[in-house]
Amino acid sequence: MAKSESAPTRAEGEPLLRVENLQTAFFTEKETIRAVDGVSFDIRRGETVGIVGESGSGKSVTARSIMGLVDSPGRVLEGSSIRFDGEELTGKSEKEYRQLRGSDIAMVFQDPLTSLNPVYTVGNQIKEALRLHRDMRGAEATEEAIDLLEAVGIPDASRRVTEYPHEFSGGMRQRAVIAMALACDPELLICDEPTTALDVTIQAQILELLDDLQDERDLAIMFITHDMGVIAEVSDRVNVMYAGEIVESAPVVELFENPRHPYSRGLLKSIPGNQPDADRLSTIEGDVPTPNEPATYCRFEPRCPEAFEECTKVHPESLGVTTSDDDHTAACLLYPEDVPQAEAVELHDQAGSDPEVSDR
Ligand code: SF4
């Protein structure tokens, strides 16, 4: 979406990004894989929303769906809604999406080499982004590229702007990719495991850099990772994903101090150092299932230490962990915890058949 005067504006109070009932499926000859199955969340300007879960939980497909980057045989299904700055993105053409990507929304991937072209200098790649999205050329673009490299903490930027990606270290390459993403002055930055390939010291530097850039630019950040330690450091709010669904959502301190969903508890217990008395690191037995049918049960049930009979019969919806708390939700039949269990199960059953309440 071009930053034009005719662009629709958000309703007052509406977040910068609103994802509602996002469903993305991959259609193969053998089966339909429901990689993202009824996901809803918001991101406000200046806020970092973390999406955490094991591989195969649907985190990256959620990001790619927002960016319009779902490749065949996958597609975003009807009934999904992705509103950015008041405008619906689902149904946009590839040409419209190209305009949006790298302009209003930019993405940083795990491996910087997927974003950098080895045969062009880093400076030329930043300048290309400036030409395409901000119509900058020549000396003006070179100066802006140097400013951006300085902004992401690359020393001696006026020399390094003429260097090739292979002349940068891994951490410096990721900084260069962030500079490229910022070249278009995006409002939303989607970071997909941006520090996973980096060693711990460099990881801390990149997280600090993102934090500083967010403060300076009032950026909204969606941060995807499998690492609960990283999520704790960067997020204002955390969404925990499992098998295509958000199973718990809460402000970061609340989630870490008071996790409710058995899966979130398992993830937290598996952080090294989090169970000082334990002889061995706790793990969640089993694997994330491939969601290939609409769930009429809890997908975590085979791995859940607290499962009970109804978990195989009723799909848990995202409901408040208590009847008066809608800021902390869990898709688990144990909640709301302030009503008898049978009543809680009934509430999930009702919510699943009420399109106003259900995400699915
Ligand atoms: S719904 Fe049941 S199986 Fe699923 S997480 Fe809750 S207790 Fe465990």
Give your account of this protein's structure.
This protein starts with 16 loop residues before the first strand and ends in a 7-residue tail after the last helix. The model is unreliable at 1-7 (pLDDT under 50). It has 360 residues and is α/β, with parallel strands linked by helices. It has an eight-stranded mixed β-sheet with strand order 7-8-9-3-10-11-13-12, with helices on both faces. Among the domains are: 111-185; 269-353, no CATH class. It contains eleven helices and 13 strands. A hairpin with a 2-residue loop joins β10 (237-242) and β11 (245-251). Bound molecules: iron/sulfur cluster. Iron/sulfur cluster is lined by residues 261-262, 298, 300-301, 304, 306-307, 311, 316, 332-334.
Task: Write a concise synopsis of the structure shown.
The protein is an alpha/beta fold.
How would the blueprint of this fold be written?
Blueprint: E1 17-27, E2 32-43, E3 48-52, H1 59-66, E4 74-76, E5 81-84, E6 87-88, H2 94-100, E7 105-108, H3 122-134, H4 138-151, H5 157-160, H6 170-182, E8 188-192, H7 200-217, E9 220-225, H8 228-234, E10 237-242, E11 245-251, H9 252-257, H10 262-269, E12 319-322, E13 325-330, H11 341-353
Parallel strand pairs: 3-9, 3-10, 7-8, 8-9
Antiparallel strand pairs: 1-2, 1-4, 1-5, 5-6, 10-11, 11-13, 12-13
Helix pairs in contact: 3-4, 3-6, 4-6
Bound molecules: iron/sulfur cluster.
Iron/sulfur cluster binds at residues 261-262, 298, 300-301, 304, 306-307, 311, 316, 332-334.
